[in-house]
Design a protein that fits this description.
This protein has strands at 11-16, 22-27, 32-36, 43-44, 55-60, 66-71, 76-80, 85-90, 97-102, 108-113, 118-122, 127-132. By secondary structure, the protein is mainly beta. A hairpin with a 4-residue loop joins strand 2 (22-27) and strand 3 (32-36).
Length: 133
């Protein structure tokens, strides 16, 4: 269960890793939580989305080693699951990001925003290759 704080945060995005071992939860106030399901306790990751900005989407990489989150602040944030640490923040969208997903080989991330942009990021090179409208 997502811990309630004085801001009344609640889940706005969730994903379960392909192996079923990890749960990711994005909150209404920009917080991201990660839990190893065998421990049944959510751990808050360092704040990387703008405070008060909803996390709208989250997705584990196919191998479960990385997590991507996207939100109303227009940011896409990449996390390392095993160390629960931040890897990279990309701010290619100028309006809220509503969705994110991984390619089946885990080498690309795609984000879609309310700015009508679809961005394709190469995770290996850490660069945005395509912006489509």
């Amino acid at each position: 269960m997502l811990p309630r704080d004085k801001t009344g945060d609640h889940a706005t995005a969730v994903d379960l890793s392909a192996d079923g071992n990890w749960l990711a939860v994005g909150g209404r106030t920009g917080k991201v939580f990660l839990a190893a399901l065998n421990q049944r306790q959510l751990q808050q990751l360092p704040m990387r989305h703008q405070d008060g900005s909803k996390v709208r989407s989250c997705a584990f990489s196919p191998d479960g080693s990385k997590l991507v989150t996207a939100g109303d602040d227009g940011r896409m944030v990449l996390w390392d699951v095993r160390s629960s640490s931040w890897v990279l923040t990309v701010h290619e969208h100028f309006k809220p990001v509503r969705g994110c997903c991984w390619s089946p080989d885990g080498k690309k991330i795609v984000t879609a925003g309310m700015d009508t942009l679809i961005c394709v990021m190469d995770v290996v090179l850490l660069t945005v290759h395509h912006k489509l409208r």
